[in-house]
Amino acid sequence: MAFNYQFQTKLPPDALHYTKINWYYVVARKIYYSLQTPHSYCDDCVSSVDVSKVNHVITADLKFPAHQFWKNRRLKQAKEEAQAEIEQYRLQREKEFKAKEEAALGSHGSSTTEVEKETQEKMMVLNSNFQKNREEVLTTLLNLVCDIKPEIHMNYRING
Q: 110 lies in a domain?
């Protein structure tokens, strides 16, 4: 593949009026080239340079021109900005929802705390009763299991 490069050698009178705006991606060599072109709003720059020569400096098999590159970059940036804005809006709405939920269920929230408090009190009473009666229950259970008294069951019939 043959490349035909033509570069602008004549610099403008005031280099501050020029910016790099045309980017091209050359497929074969994967090299980025930039050209200095005049601003459209500066009369001195537009009149001092032959714009037709500057705009078409690189002629080669190009993947995409500068406007497509910047358009894609701007679309990606806009998508990221939109995602950030959506996330911020979602967080704001969640905060508002939580505030409304707390306001609406304020009495419900106090009843749940009351139920939890009563449950804790009952658990403490059960634990204290368990600790108090533990030894008595264990001794009774061990006596029933270990003290064996052989007796004939009252429903047992010997003759029939």
A: no
